[in-house]
Amino acid sequence: MSGPLIALTGATGFIGRHLLTALSARGFRVRVLLRRPVAVPDGASSAVVGDLARPINMAAALSGVDAVVHSAGLAHAMSGAPEDDFRSSNTEATKRLADAAERAKVRRFVFLSSIRAQTGPSAPSPVRETDHPAPTDAYGRSKLAAEQALAETGLDWVALRPVLVYGAGVKGNMAALMRLARSPYPLPLASLSGRRSLVSVESLSAAVATVLQVPGPLARPLIVADPDPLSLPQMIAALRSGLGRRAGMLPVPVPLIGLACRMTGREEVFDRLSGSLVATAEGLAALGWQPSQASQDGLAALAADNAG
Fold first, then answer.
1. CB 3.0-4.6 Å disulfide test: which of 8, 32, 170, 308 passes with 44?
2. Beta-carbon contacts of residue 164 (< 8 Å; ≥ 6 apart)
């Protein structure tokens, strides 16, 4: 195999595992950068063990590398983590890796950021890359700070800002939604009309491959989102259709749902359920990227694959 050599962090995580498979299938050679000695993941052409908190062997890790894909970091689902932890894992570690990549003369640095670097959990109008970034929590601020650190290097960089990602092995909010869809009971959610953008992990992997192959400089953030935002009832209906079931939704006034969430300490959950977060991937589309499938089809397939 003689394709471009990619250094990939986070290869044992949800997104990283899919990236390793997808990039290898597209002809890239992938060198995984691991924090501790473990079995080399399938699809990797080589592996280097090291710690971004103490990057003592980054020169060896990045020797001969054409591009870095940095997907490691502290996830938003770990919302109880202190701000310093997000800053250390998501900002400072990214800057250290980028500095090492610049010294190694790496051609491009692809950073897996988040839509939360640009906005809070909801937005009143569609979010675009040209909007001024306004993160609202420690996770989003740490991702935006990492992007800003990349902009200060001499690297050609790109920060991908995916919306809620779904796919095999997903955790966090989407895993909770899948558990809800698998429940045997009708759900009192039919009145929730807020729409949210989603993206499959396969489409996100295709976005990474797209920006790796762009010949000219990028040096900017790009949103990654399917073009068909869905309401929560539509998401549940798609998942349940994959399970061979009817949607099973009951109309309950939204204020009553909000009251129930507040009384049970789930006010943040209600904000996520009732609000909209629609994002447009105009920059990626201009580069030739297309999502692998419609969100409703992807959710149905995901549920069908996990029916057991």
1. 32
2. 173, 174, 196, 197, 198, 199
